[in-house]
Amino acid sequence: MTRIVIAGCGDVGTALGVRLAAEGHEVWGLKRNPGTLPDTIRPLAADLSRPESLTVLPGGIDQVVYAAAAGGYTPENYHMAYVDGVRHLLALLAQRAEPVQRLIFVSSSSVYDQTAGEWVDEESPAQARGFAPESLRTGEQYILQSGYSAAVVRFAGIYGPGRTYLIRKVQSGPACCEPGLYTNRIHRDDCARVLQHVLGLSEPAPVYLGVDDHPALQCEVLAWLAGALGCPPPTPTAESDRDRNRARSNKRCSNRLLRTSGWTPIYPDYRAGYRALLESV
Ligand SMILES: NC(=O)c1ccc[n+]([C@@H]2O[C@H](COP(=O)([O-])OP(=O)(O)OC[C@H]3O[C@@H](n4cnc5c(N)ncnc54)[C@H](OP(=O)(O)O)[C@@H]3O)[C@@H](O)[C@H]2O)c1
């Protein structure tokens, strides 16, 4: 039995924790308001921005997954969630007698700023500018330089139960879409399975891109959803309506490294994932 802490145990962390607990591991979920965690995840009420609150962490922890999300789109929130919080947690772990055996940081594919629809993988430059990707990259570096057996997982857009933004967009449509713009995604349950997989690898790579098998054009996804929902098809935005000054990220994220390490998605593309989602509501 492994003792695992999920720091920032929200949607993805809870899905992971439930899976790990079902395998017989002892799982703690750390968050400020842990009251709604399922019974199989032990609650830890703590605030990653307040180092003194983190002393509630139990001893003898084997593995840690850092999955906190920023509370809002501001430099302060991002710095707290991905820089200060990581630093505080690492400082606490350094005081413990037994080093953790695996540390995972949940990051985002938004650290890439490729704009030509090209394929990107873990070797591609990750040079997006702005407080959000810069905070994420700082957190990644803290984790990778921690001295523990560590890995970073960069997820693309997460969808799943309760995360139905695109469905609502189509239902309130017709939605607008940008011709030629690729989108990348992964189902919430596959996120949990990626993290579970990386926890179990004996020698993980430093970075994994967590995405399904098929990046898809935004217009194609919205058109498919509109068809499935019986809604009007999306309206492609005219070239003149687009902000030509804005270098919009447009890339196709590859999951080849994850797949060659032995992971397979339950939902290999948006059709499989959204079909399951639509059937469940
Ligand atoms: N949304 C996407 O499409 C996407 C894409 C790529 C990557 N990601 C990343 O995936 C990760 C997990 O996302 P998610 O969807 O599971 O997020 P989520 O449901 O919002 O969960 C994040 C959890 O972090 C906790 N948290 C926030 N600030 C905290 C603090 N100061 N101290 C302790 N806990 C704190 C929150 O709980 P309390 O409020 O109770 O503290 C919340 O439950 C995040 O790093 C996110 O950036 C998301």
Q: What features would you describe in this structure?
A:
A seven-stranded parallel sheet has the order 3-2-1-4-5-7-12, sandwiched between helices. The chain has a two-stranded parallel sheet with strand order 6-15. A two-stranded parallel sheet has the order 8-11. The mean pLDDT is 96. It is globular. With 281 residues, it is an alpha/beta fold. 39% of the residues are buried. The two termini are 36 Å apart. α1 (11-22) crosses α5 and α4 (165-171) crosses α6. It is built from eight helices and 15 strands. Bound molecules: NADP nicotinamide-adenine-dinucleotide phosphate. NADP nicotinamide-adenine-dinucleotide phosphate binds at residues 8, 10-13, 31-33, 47-49, 67-69, 71, 81, 85, 106, 108, 155, 157-158.
**In what order do the strands lie side by side in the largest sheet?**
3-2-1-4-5-7-12
Number of helices: 8
Poorly predicted ranges: none
Percent in helix: 25-40%
Determine the mean pLDDT.
96
Bound molecules: NADP nicotinamide-adenine-dinucleotide phosphate
Order of helices and strands: EHEEEHEEHEEHEEEHEEHEEHH
Q: How much of the residues is beta strand, in percent?
A: 15-25%
Overall strand count: 15
Mind describing the biggest β-sheet?
A: 7 strands, parallel
Shape: globular
Which radius of gyration do the C-alpha atoms yield? 19 Å
- Assign the structural class, choosing from mainly alpha, mainly beta, alpha/beta, alpha+beta, or little secondary structure: alpha/beta
Cα-to-Cα separation, first versus last residue: 36 Å
